[in-house]
Amino acid sequence: MEFVKEFATFLHQKGIIKFGDFTLASGKHSSYYVDLRLVPSYPIEFRKMVKYLENQIVEDIGLDNFDSIVSVPTGGLVIASALAIETVKPLIYVRSKPKDYGTSKSVEGKIHNNMKVVMIDDVATTGGSVVNAVKDLKEVNISVKDAYVIVNRMEGAADALLGLGVKMHSILNILQITETLFEQNLIDENVLEKVKKQINK
């Protein structure tokens, strides 16, 4: 848990997690915003995060039990690329919409029938982009049993993925982050309560 505390503190110190009033990509309002696209700007923490993710995957499912790492642009793809280099695993990715030129396919990279892949993303809210990617992969006979995210916002993604037979794992969830920050007096009780309320909605 030492990494979790250290990483949560780092996210707060560098303004990667902000508290206030935000509108998300989905149009929903949120009492906080997590922008993990900033993490690669801090190479030491970025590498620690990728190593921690790699260790989790090794512990949970082992590196020999899947063929490739898959992700969705853009946030998750940077993390997945670094992970692919660390684990020496092939990388594929799923476009949010097929390109309208060239081969016009949605899944990019070397694929074959009955492949087993592990999905990587940065932040999970309702799981929309990952759910769509899993469906696209199923259409080309690629099976996903596990998805890993860095931060789980605890707003339905795990259930949405479970409905497709995918187990979601996360390095941190928003409750762990806010409770860690509260314990260190970095945020007040009011902020913590707002986050809890949002999760329970």
TrEMBL record:
5-phospho-alpha-D-ribose 1-diphosphate binds at R95, K99, D121, D122, V123, A124, T125, T126, G127, G128, S129. Keywords: Glycosyltransferase, Magnesium, Pyrimidine biosynthesis, Transferase. It comes from the Archaea. The keyword Glycosyltransferase applies. GO terms for biological process: 'de novo' UMP biosynthetic process; pyrimidine nucleobase biosynthetic process. Orotate binds at T125, R153. It is an enzyme of class 2 (transferase). Pfam families: Pribosyltran. Its cofactor is Mg(2+). Residues 50-157 form the Phosphoribosyltransferase domain. GO terms for molecular function: magnesium ion binding; orotate phosphoribosyltransferase activity. Its EC number is 2.4.2.10. It catalyses: orotidine 5'-phosphate + diphosphate = orotate + 5-phospho-alpha-D-ribose 1-diphosphate. The keyword rRNA-binding does not apply. Pathway: Pyrimidine metabolism; UMP biosynthesis via de novo pathway; UMP from orotate: step 1/2. Homodimer. Belongs to the purine/pyrimidine phosphoribosyltransferase family. PyrE subfamily. PANTHER family: OROTATE PHOSPHORIBOSYLTRANSFERASE, URIDINE 5'-MONOPHOSPHATE SYNTHASE. Catalyzes the transfer of a ribosyl phosphate group from 5-phosphoribose 1-diphosphate to orotate, leading to the formation of orotidine monophosphate (OMP). This is Orotate phosphoribosyltransferase. It comes from Candidatus Nitrosopumilus sediminis. The lineage of its organism: Archaea, Nitrososphaerota, Nitrososphaeria, Nitrosopumilales, Nitrosopumilaceae.
